[in-house]
Amino acid sequence: MEREALRILDRLIWGTVAAVTAAVLAAALIGNFRIAWSTFMAPALACAILVMGGCFYSRWRSDPRLASGLLSTAQVIAFAAAGAPLSYLAASANAPLCDHWLDAFDRALGFDWTALLAWMNAAPEVYAVLRPIYLSLTLQMATVVLCLAFSGRLLWLRVYTLAFVCVVLLSIAISAVLPAAGAWPHYGLTGADSRIVPAVSTSWPVFYGLRDGSFRLLVAVGSEGIITFPSVHAALAIIVIAALWPIPALRFVVIAINLLMLLATPIDGSHYFVDIAAGVALAVASLVAARAIAERACAHGVLMTAALAQSP
What backbone phi and psi angles, to 5 degrees, belong to 258? Predict the structure, then answer.
């Protein structure tokens, strides 16, 4: 039953990767975008090696845990490589910026972004701790795949991967209609106004270039995170916590790390507080949807097993 469910979910994930890749290729063929092919070479090579290893340990030397670890890592890498340029296409729609609405929402709830910046400026040792945690997301996501695979939680690993896919796709869709530059440019701040230079400072020229048409390069490795609302960092922090919750030894460590990530996100990610709240809500919805999809795949697996048992 579980084996059939895993096959169904893997086909769904790879099908989504293929659909996103096709959309990116179509944009380059019919639009004025150019693909930076060299930035796709490393992910493509890594995925090819991982998939070959996964197939080997699935078909010839049966090791479901190792096979799942290899294949799921390939899925995450492939989707990240395809999803990054898709976010560029969304930004190029050039919908009206909604920064003033996000800022107003924060103020209505009593949140003061500039006060948080002032506190971090006054406590540089705090920011020195928070910044590497903010930048740890890629490492955390890879760790989740390995921990779930080698602890035998193979179905939950697919739920995690599906939730990741859902969060990214929904965030890109939302950012196309509700784009925002982020708190730093909205408040007119630069590195000269603070001891802190946010991790996303290099994304602003790309974001504005996509909007005005001066930047038309689709990039995988080295792409900039240009989505402000909702916060993908905040969403993935919640998904990582949920993914590792079944492993008691890691549960409270990952909670602590990702709560600190949420604290770092407004300043290092140039996010409004409402971005973080939206990211958390999106993560919960994506986890619920991914789990429902997995349950349906399991039910289909039961029916398939029953049908095969009855066949002559």
Answer: -85, -25
- Predicted confidence band at 156 (pLDDT cuts at 50, 70, 90)? very high
Count of structural domains within the chain: 1
User: Among 108, 116, 264, which residue's Cα sits nearest to residue 187?
Assistant: 116
Domain span including residue 179: 2-310
The whole-angstrom separation of Cα 165 and Cα 163 is: 5
Alpha helices in the chain (DSSP H): 2-30, 38-59, 64-91, 99-108, 113-122, 124-134, 137-150, 154-177, 183-186, 203-212, 232-244, 248-268, 273-310
Q: Which of 35, 40, 30, 87 is nearest to 210 (CA)?
A: 87
Residue 84 contacts residue 203 (beta carbons within 8 Å): no
What the block records as the tokens of 31 is 């639009």
Strand partners, 218: 35
Which 3 state secondary structure label does DSSP give 35?
strand
* pLDDT in the model for residue 307: 28
Per-residue pLDDT at 305 exceeds 60:
no
Q: At 250, is the secondary structure helix, strand, or coil?
A: helix
Query: Where do we find the tokens 């760790």?
Result: 143
- In which residue are the tokens 């990039």 written? 219
